[in-house]
């Protein structure tokens, strides 16, 4: 894994977390239980601290960083979608940050909120709990329903199981040259949220 000390700071990673070998973790980073960090993610605690609490996931090609002296916190079950960027923000418990969203400095996202894919959350914005925010710049457009939270929570629970699955079965291997006749099927019990 690409895990680096920076100055006096050595990352702290709970043994149940899974950090993909193509992810990078640098410096003052604290990673809790059942956290998933996908390939290409960059978690750079060189100028400040980054805390990923239990059950978080930081998916492929995400970046987490900050200005000097700032602490970035992802509360329990924060879910950071593919390609999102978090810079100097506080992400609340059970929040979903959508794919390719950008969340800037001094942003506070309240618990159980959703930031839409490709949204830009400008510096200093405070998003109340259970809010849906979308756009560039992001605007709160409605409150999150119980159904939306249940859908989000179920998706994050899949990611909370993924670290153990990755530790148990993800190994570098040579590919097959053709599809085997008894190739297994994937489960189909989780779908995009229906409006």
UniProtKB/TrEMBL annotation:
Pfam families in UniProt: Hexapep (PF00132)
CDD domains attached to this UniProt entry: LbH_paaY_like
Database matches in SUPFAM superfamilies: Trimeric LpxA-like enzymes
InterPro entries: Hexapep (IPR001451), Transf_Hexapept/Carb_Anhydrase (IPR050484), Trimer_LpxA-like_sf (IPR011004)
Protein name according to UniProt: Carnitine operon protein CaiE
Organism of derivation: Thermaurantimonas aggregans
Gene: caiE
